[in-house]
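The pair is quoted verbatim as follows:
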Amino acid sequence: MSAEEPAIRLLCFPPAGGYAAPFRAWRAALPPEIAVHPIEPPDGCVDVDAVLAAVEPEVTALADRPTALFGHSFGALLAYELAHRLRARRLPLARLAVSASPAPRLVTPGSHAAASDGSARVAAWFALADGYLPQPRPVLDCPVSVFGGLQDTTVQRYQLAAWRECTAGTFRLRVLPGSHDLLREGGTYVIRALERDLSDDIRLPEL
């Protein structure tokens, strides 16, 4: 691998109704060995399966080397489903990282709609997210990192801890000051923690 090539790719998924553009700032905050790729789910999808079908080609094309998936809120569930699709294709899944989301088996209808800001686009995304029905999945074997906010009134600690059941690999749960808007309030901490976790995965030198 040349010095210009990343050791690992980090694919990032926004919450329902959000945009992936804020993840671009992570590129400057992480070392060049970690290539950050914001993934923008398209508007107009009729259900979660359609969202997954729309982004899967981009995700699989990027998985030419160890790949980590990160998602916030509803984006965490997209990352989880795509992790299984990467595994099914025998592509190199290095880590699943999620924030501000209950484990799939604890997702309840209506949790996203309650957060709608009234705009038609966001309301449509939250309605789509509330249609997510988790299916039985095999246990992943990759490490899983989970982040939550101490003041998050929508996701409780036990719902975060339940992600432990999704993997036979190592599991790290970090709960820090902040609400459901954890990436804005504690984004620096999340980035630094992810850097440490991904450094473990690819054995980067200490920075």
Remarks:
- Residues 66 and 92 are 5 Å apart (CA to CA).
- The first strand starts at residue 8 and ends at 13.
- Strands lie at 8-13, 34-38, 67-72, 93-99, 144-149, 171-176.
- The longest helix spans residues 182-202.
